[in-house]
Amino acid sequence: MDHKRVPLFLFLTFVLSWGLLFYMWSIGGLENPASFYMAAGMMLIPALCVILTRLFTGEGFKDLWLLPQNFKHTWGVYVLAWLLPSLLILLGGALWFLLNPDRFDPAMSAGVELLRSQADATGQVVTNQQLRSAIILNSLSAILIAPLVNVIFCMGEELGWRGYLLPKLAMKYKPAAAALMVGIIWGVWHAPIIAMGHNYGLGYAGWPWLGISAMILFCIVLGYLFGWMALRAKSALPAALAHGALNGVVSLPTMFLIGQSNPFIGPLATGVIGGSGFIVAGIICWWLLNKNPDQYHPAHTDVYQPFRPIFVTPHEE
């Protein structure tokens, strides 16, 4: 039945998601204040379509990749999912600033001015140093809390992509190939909102196809990283945590940015330099998925200890 379930899931997900985005575009796109809520609703659609597909095909919910499985042995994956995206965002941003030192603002003037305007509006008297300290404290809090705060909406996507589609494809194809296919599909799914200016803006040379292509490539890279997490833990939850961390911290490098930058380059992770940490992580996960594909088969039940055995085969242990 999976050869019917996968097309049905994809059909429902794309029709409902793109239908919502077409309506968003018809009422002003991202310029409409309601677009934030519609974009959040779009994130929940893949999970909704998992439920609908399972109901329509009589599949049931017994093997739903929602809750942690074998957490005693896979806890390391959850730690990586919680902290690694923030580290990669900071490393990619730091590399971009090293290559563009004239664009680095250690005083965080843009963020300070934003907070000052908010403080002035409420009658608060604060110093620039206090505002900088607040930015740093808020950033550290976001690194720790954002994955947990964002996990519900991100699970809306990840239960579909990494909790349903990926295991289905991995039953038929090698795990690295399945992760690649999910990454491409996931990137294409973003196409309408990218065309409306999300992540890369409007009016650039090659709009909207360059932005759509860049998003597909970024989703392929993330697809290997998030796919490795999901297949190793046999749960979509680590991917949802990592996705939540990415969404919550991705704009952090802009706190130190002077002026505007090329979104296809950096310092944000959606640029090739800003996202260099994710590119390296994606390559490593591609290698891991290829190195011992049987371990990542959805039906594989043997679980290895966290961290050290990630880089060896069972025979090498």
Chain-wise SSE layout:
Blueprint lengths: L1 H25 L8 H23 L13 H29 L9 H14 L5 H22 L1 H20 L4 H15 L1 H5 L13 H25 L3 H13 L26 H16 L26
Helix pairs in contact: 1-2, 2-6, 3-5, 3-9, 3-10, 3-11, 4-5, 5-10, 6-7, 6-9, 6-10, 7-9, 9-10, 9-11
Task: Outline the structure in words.
With 317 residues, the protein is mainly α. It is 65% helix and 0% strand. The protein has helices at 2-26, 35-57, 71-99, 109-122, 128-149, 151-170, 175-189, 191-195, 209-233, 237-249, 276-291. α5 packs antiparallel against α10 (237-249) and α7 (175-189) crosses α9 (209-233). The chain is globular, with a radius of gyration of 20 Å. The chain starts with a helix and ends in a 26-residue tail after the last helix. Mean pLDDT is 91; it is low at 303-317.
Summarize the structure.
The protein is mostly helical.
Which descriptors would you attach to this protein?
317 residues, mainly alpha, disordered C terminus
pLDDT below 50 for ≥5 consecutive residues: which ranges?
A: 303-317
Instruction: Count every beta strand, where a strand is a DSSP E run of 2 or more residues.
Output: 0
- Classify the helix fraction into a percent range: 55-70%
Bulk shape: globular
Please give the alpha-carbon distance between the first and last residues: 37 Å
Structural class: mainly alpha
Question: Sheet bearing the most strands, described?
Answer: none
Mean pLDDT: 91
Number of helices: 11
Helices and strands, in N-to-C order?
HHHHHHHHHHH
Percentage of β-strand residues: under 5%
CA radius of gyration is 20 Å
